[in-house]
Amino acid sequence: MKHLLLLHGAIGAKDQLDELANSLRSKYHVHTIDFNGHGGSPATDESFSIESFAHDVIKYLQENKINQVAIFGYSMGGYVAF
To answer: What is the mean predicted confidence (pLDDT) over 51-62?
Structure first.
């Protein structure tokens, strides 16, 4: 099954994508993350930037040994996906 990562928008949280994630689980192994400082995830010393949120994505993929993934992001999450 292919992996799909869903990325939330600014000041959002991964929970906002639960309904979409649930509807896609029959076709994908769906992943969601909270960006640094979002959705109860603690803020780190890194500044809030698209680059720092992209590092959150890379870290998640590496920690979960995901080598190939499709990414969908809305609003800020779309910029991070680029």
So the answer is: 94
